[in-house]
Description:
By secondary structure, this protein is of the alpha+beta class. About 30% of the residues lie in helices and about 15% in strands. The N and C termini lie far apart (about 55 Å).
Amino acid sequence: MKGARYRFVVVFDSEEDGRVIASAPGIPGGHVYGKTRAEALRRLRAALRFYVRQALGKGRAPRPQSRAVAEIEVVA
């Protein structure tokens, strides 16, 4: 039997020094750094897995994200 699946919105930002920040908005402590986007995503996935397992281990459902992200285009 497979475990339950949870979906999270992920936002990427770049620091001036080139590091990448991957964040799951609305999730406590839901942000990590990586040298590349792939590394940051891998680290965030591990952090979110830990977060979900901790919540489930305490008999609680993981807190749902309160935000969503949309990309828009603005012509000026």
